[in-house]
Design goal:
Radius of gyration: 20 Å
Largest sheet: 7 strands, mixed
Number of helices: 13
Oligomer: single chain
Structural class: alpha/beta
Distance between the termini: 37 Å
Helix content: 25-40%
């Protein structure tokens, strides 16, 4: 997925830095507290004893419930994918009625055909679950597959804060459901959808990885369509973009980010804490260091990398940024 702050390109570096400090990971409990699309949890899943994954957003919970908590083979899962790919289009579903131009919604997040296909697949997945034809593992596998497949044909420049006036080339392609296959292993993993500062008081482990929002951008707004597909509930979409109500993270508020961060560090029952944060964040390097060194031995790693940004014309270009990995060996 084209995901804000994705650690896909940095995941190998992060894993290497963790292993250098911690050593053998095979008996360690690893927590990804702001999981997003789940890249870091997936990176560590086959190397640690257990992954604890968490994110407050519904779409993120679905992705991580599949990629992290699912760890054993699911019988006939590919047959269910095949059945969903040949469904008849649904003419009056929620996505088509509210987010496709042909319905009269004045919104164009998907082509009419793809909007109807998303609705048909989403309704069928629900019916299978309600009729107990699928269990939770298969439900989240199928729903994760739908979210990622829908994202591939979305008519946006990147995030869902706005749609394009004309259907772009990739959005014209018919939606085809591709399987969100997950890593198999013998270990049990846990996935939560909770406020991180609340959850941290209830969990413990060896390695805590933190990747909170850096700035004022709200993930609930930028990915509201994915939340809507995941929830598939009945609400009245608001405004030109059809947004739904969303929560505002304290980590996206200049006056509250640092206070929330210190409370999190104080309450964390983990030996090693790693914080990813870049040079454009609301909290400064000096502020982060001052907080973390109160609670143990502090150090920092730095890596320059290139990332994509959208310019004023909606086109993508690359920019150089610095990723900081703050490290704390906490006194427990």
């Amino acid at each position: 997925m084209n995901y804000i702050g994705s650690k896909l390109k940095l995941s190998a570096w992060i894993k290497s830095e963790v292993e250098t400090l911690v050593g053998d990971l095979s008996d360690k409990v690893f927590c990804d507290l702001f999981a997003g699309s789940g890249i870091i949890g997936k990176t560590f899943k086959k190397h640690v004893k257990k992954v604890i994954s968490n994110d407050i957003e519904e779409y993120s919970y679905v992705l991580n419930r599949n990629y992290i908590q699912n760890h054993k083979p699911i019988k006939n899962k590919d047959e269910f994918i095949a059945a969903l790919n040949v469904l008849k289009l649904l003419e009056d579903g929620f996505i088509y009625k509210n987010y496709c131009l042909g319905s009269g919604s004045d919104r164009q997040y998907f082509s009419d055909e793809n909007g109807k296909k998303i609705d048909a697949v989403r309704v069928q997945i629900n019916e299978w679950r309600e009729n107990k034809e699928i269990d939770d593992d298969l439900y989240y596998f199928l729903l994760s597959s739908l979210l990622e497949s829908a994202d591939r044909v979305a008519n946006t420049a990147s995030v869902y804060g706005a749609f394009l006036k004309k259907i772009k080339k990739s959005a014209k392609k018919p939606l085809k459901l591709l399987a969100s296959d997950f890593e198999l292993n013998d270990n049990y993993h846990e996935v939560y959808k909770a406020d991180s500062n609340v959850l941290i008081k209830k969990i413990s482990g060896d390695i805590l990885y933190l990747d909170p929002p850096y700035n004022i951008r709200q993930y609930g707004a930028n990915y509201h369509i994915l939340n809507t597909i995941a929830k598939y509930d009945d609400f009245i979409p608001f405004g030109k973009t059809g947004i739904r109500k969303y929560g505002r993270s304290d980590y996206c508020k200049k006056k509250k980010a640092l206070k929330s961060f210190e409370e999190l560090i104080k309450d964390a029952n983990f030996t090693y804490i790693f914080l990813s944060y870049n040079n454009e964040g609301l909290m400064s390097l000096k502020q982060i260091k001052a907080v973390m060194e109160k609670y143990g031995k502090y150090s920092i790693r730095t890596k320059e990398h290139r990332r994509y940004i959208s310019n004023k014309n909606g086109k993508h270009e690359t920019a150089s940024t610095f990723e900081y990995l703050h490290v704390l060996e906490k006194r427990l």
